[in-house]
Amino acid sequence: MIWNSSQTDLLSLAWHPNGKQVYVGTDYYSQFSFSELKISDDLSISTLGDTDSIAISPDGAWIVSASVSAKALRLWNVRTESPGPLLEQNDGSCLDVSWSPDGKWIASGYRNGEIRLWNTTSFKCEQILKEHSDPITDIVWAPESDHFFSCTGWIGPIIKWRIPDTSETIEPVRYSMPERCFKNGLAWCLQENCLISTTGGGFYQMWDQEGRPLKKQKMDLQTISSLDWSPDGKHIAASPLLNRNSVVVLDTSNGLIQKKYQRQQLSIQQVCWSPDGKDLAGLFSSSKLVGIWSSEKKWELRTPGKPEILNTISWGPDQTLAAGAVDSNIYFWNSDRKPTGMLNVGTSGVNSLDWNQQGDLACITDNSEIYIWDQNRKLIDQIPSRNNNLAKGKWSSRGDQLLVSTNDGSAFLIWNAEGIRTSTIFGSDYKIMDLDWSRDDQHIALAGPDSILRIVKRNGKLSRLLKGHYGSVNAVTCNPQSDEVASGGSDGTIRIWDLNTGEAKSTTIVLSENKSAVFGPGGEVLHADSDFDQDFVYLIEAPTGNRRVITPGQFRQLLAN
Predict the structure, then answer these.
(1) Other Cβ atoms closer than 10 A to 138
(2) Rounded CA gap, 536 and 254, in Å?
(3) How many CB atoms lie within 10 A of CB 480?
(4) Which of 49, 219, 411, 421 could be disulfide-bonded to 33 (CB atoms 3.0-4.6 Å)?
């Protein structure tokens, strides 16, 4: 059975202990409210408005809800559907809540990496735990209730927290991950009595109660590190992290992988389409090479001399390709793949390049200076550093405004045709992973490590929070032909959203060996390849936010139904 709510985003869910009631947190209402839908005599669904995360007490009497917009952490009486104690009024940064199995504790996780432990007898915060430095994405209790686990969607440890018998301070025990990787989630496995952590690197790890690894298993999922929508709006190019020597091209009409390009032994960190949509360029990580693929042939462009590693690439409107290197040079190739000179930016490495449709090339250096050249490569503007954290620049679709993101979480409107130099339009407390303009330049899409895709209006006001990824959102690209935006994350999915409504239109789960599976807004299977290896376990998350681990056999059965 699939239940679909077409009018709102589903942000969280929890089963009632009686097994007959599901509570779903949504963003539909301006304040918390209950709305019950009876599915059958044995099942009903209650939606809770303005609720980003929920947990139910073991006796089923209380719900604790975290609301970003209401900036509150509050208890609610399940029987009377009335508000209970307000635990705290916060800054809207609470991302996850979890109730201990014995009912004595509530743990809440925050965007700044803090965890707060609440005593359910006094409803007071007993301790604030500060070992994490990135947003908390998951808190899981062990069945004994004497310890719990926490992780972030970013690179960092899983931490085990022991609950002492007395009032002494809770001490963390760090679990060492098998590699530096994104952690998509935690779950407790009752059958094995162990903790399971999933990663965007394509693995899940089982741990015993003392943090010793029990089993490491490959999952057929791939973190998405780069996306670009083709000029005709019919394809999306993606660079999956697990097979980083590959570029996959999705057909947006069905979400399935249509083509795959590879270069053995070299990973691909950035992909971008040529302006005519006939060629696809890929920047090979930690190398001096750029690959170009077309329907007819492929090329490898090598920088002349002995330059340093390339950092970024961008196509010009006349099919010229530019590549920026850490040696302060920008290299150019024309449409015939012949080198046509270079530009030098002094002593700074080139971090970001972007060309607008008028032929102006914007460059951001590693010391946060901005250079802009016209189509004749004549310097027309040089903006000195006003922020030491500049990361990536992106011209608007019309080419009259340059948006620059910073590693500390702000996005700045830096330069436009009227000569405006600096104007902050959006600020946050986390790193912006990627950004893009909508086709009409009225909205900006911002990807971040807290699993949320933010849509910001041209004037800097927040328009929508698109939630569905589990883990970091690494890449974003807008459809140049329609009001759609695609996001790629460490959960192995590429999600397509409606910019106007915020509705999740489809989710593609990118699998290895040229395989993919596509889910609709309600979790229904739209398209899939079904010949999966029996050794794999797949983490499936529909756009509704539901997630589960299923076997390939179960997946094929799902397709059959």
Answers:
(1) 23
(2) 24
(3) 17
(4) 49
